[in-house]
Amino acid sequence: MDSSCLLLHRKFRFRKRNINMYSSLSPSPSPPLSHNWFHPVFLSFRGEDVRRGFLSHIHKEFQRKGVTPLIDHEMKRGGSIGPELLHAIRGSKIAIILLSRNYGSSKWCLDELVEIMKCREELGQTVMTIFYDVDPSDVRKQKGDFGKAFRKTCVGRPKEVKQKWKLALTSAANILGEDSRNWENEADMIIKISKDVSDVLSFTPSKDFDEFVGTEVHTTAITSLLQLDLEEVRMIGIWGPAGIGKTTISRVLHNKLFHQFQLSAIMDNIKVRYPRPCHDEYSAKMQLQKELLSQMFKQKDMVVPHLGVAQERLKDKKVLLVLDDVDGLGQLDAMAKDIRWFGLGSRIIVVTQDLKLLKAHGIKDIYKVDFPTSDEALEIFCMYAFGQKYPKVGFEQIAQMVTTLAGKLPL
After folding, report:
1. pLDDT-based confidence at residue 102 (cuts at 50, 70, 90)
2. Per the domain annotation, does 173 fall within a domain?
3. For residue 344, what is the domain's CATH number?
4. Cα–Cα distances in Å, from 55 out to 45, 69, 96, 112, 173?
5. Cα–Cα distance between 282 and 296 in angstroms, integer?
6. Among 85-99, 195-209, 232-246, 282-296, whose mean pLDDT is lowest?
7. Whether 303 and 339 share a structural domain
8. Transmembrane segments in this chain: where (predicted)?
């Protein structure tokens, strides 16, 4: 099969079969696509820490960008969150959790947090975190001054309630957010947060893969192989011949899963970026690391003075990394030499035509992309030959014959 045929096959390999491939932020299960967002942003905060200063400033910046956040001014507070507030949380596209020193001292804030994390999982709500004069580690482990305030709130509470709060705090602290202690200028941080919120509100779900079919079976199987529920680093391989659709599958998979991770990146065309033989392997590896970290941190012109930078920057981050079109061990050494380079919960997906390469790198969990089924192959041929999913009248038999003779790769 020549290169033009391979390109055409990749384009038509997975034609749409009434499947919407977009999956939002929910880890499991996928959120209902019909969910309506009534509010752009909901803010969860401890009033005594931020109301007069930070909150008023960020509210003003939001309004400047045309975003009206829904702020809970301790409305109708009773023993538990009422239906009005529940509706507000569940109807907000973005929830911002403003974690401050005394956030854990409020039962109300903790109940809000539990509901927000539930919406993130079930509805695909975007959740952003701001750590305001508090160490994310203190929130995650409920220690320091934050932990003292939280433990006071827990006194006399049922065990199951305390456990829900703890899990919600840990999950929220694991979301990569802005730490006010890292900013010299609070105004700059607020501008950055406002831009991030505006970008999310302007985001339109990707339709890049709407016209492909056949990917759902693959992505479901690979997701099972990834075992996303395990708090460990896992590296898996996607293997198959050229033109079979590996790149498409990996991109659909990334689109489905990336919101579950602190950082994510797709490194494509790696064998072109790092050709073999390579006359200057060290420089090629440095360039790959620079591109990888630039994608991960969404920052241009990353400084990578040596090959230990990727490991140093990513070792405590939960990342999703797709390495596509890998054909040499040197490429893997540059970007994913060891699972200890990445934080707990990370998943690295290596896409290649070379099964031996995966095994040489110690990757044991490998998904083989098989040829399309007979029905899919026929559909691929018909889309290209007739511009529709089925043969034109009078061409049924010959279309089936061509598909069969082409060995399930009709293009």
Report:
1. very high
2. yes
3. 3.40.50.300
4. 9, 11, 11, 17, 20
5. 21
6. 195-209
7. yes
8. none
- Residue 213 tokens read as 């079919």
- Which tens digit of pLDDT belongs to each residue from 12-59? 343 333 323 222 333 333 444 446 788 899 999 998 888 888 988 998
Which class for 311: exposed (0-12), middle (13-18), buried (19 or more C-beta within 10 A)? middle
Residue (of 140, 32, 45) closest to 90 by Cα position: 32
Instruction: Report the chain's C-alpha Rg in angstroms.
Output: 24
- Torsion sign over Cα 243, 249, 255, 258: negative
Give this prediction's pTM: 0.54
- Cβ-proximal residues to 102 (8 Å cutoff; 6+ apart), any chain: 46, 48, 49, 149
Q: Is the dihedral of CA 47, 49, 53, 55 positive or negative?
A: negative
Let me know if residue 12 belongs to a domain.
Answer: no
258 vs 397: which has the higher pLDDT: 397
Residues 134 and 219 placed together within one structural domain of the fold: no
Does some domain include residue 6?
no
Residue 398 CA to its chain's centroid (Å): 44
* Number of domains forming the structure of the chain: 3
- Rounded Cα distance between 67 and 204, Å, is 17
Q: 246 and 324 share a domain?
A: yes
Backbone torsions φ then ψ of 174, nearest 5 degrees: -85, -5
Which residues are catalytic, by number? 112
Count Cβ neighbours within 10 Å for each residue of 227-255 and write b for 16 or more, e otherwise: ebeeeebbbbbbbbeebbbbbbbbbbbbb
Q: How far apart are CA 68 and CA 88, in angstroms?
A: 13
In a domain, 21, yes or no: no
Task: Let me know whether 322 and 384 are in one domain.
Answer: no
Do 329 and 395 have their domain in common? Answer: no
Same domain, 80 and 116: yes
Boundary residue ending a domain (202, 226, 257): 202
Boundaries of domain holding 85 = 39-202
Gap between the terminal Cα atoms of the chain? 9
pLDDT at 22: 26
**Backbone region of residue 142 per phi and psi (left: phi > 0; alpha: psi in -120 to 50; beta: other values):** left
Residue 319 phi/psi, 5-degree rounding, is -125, 155
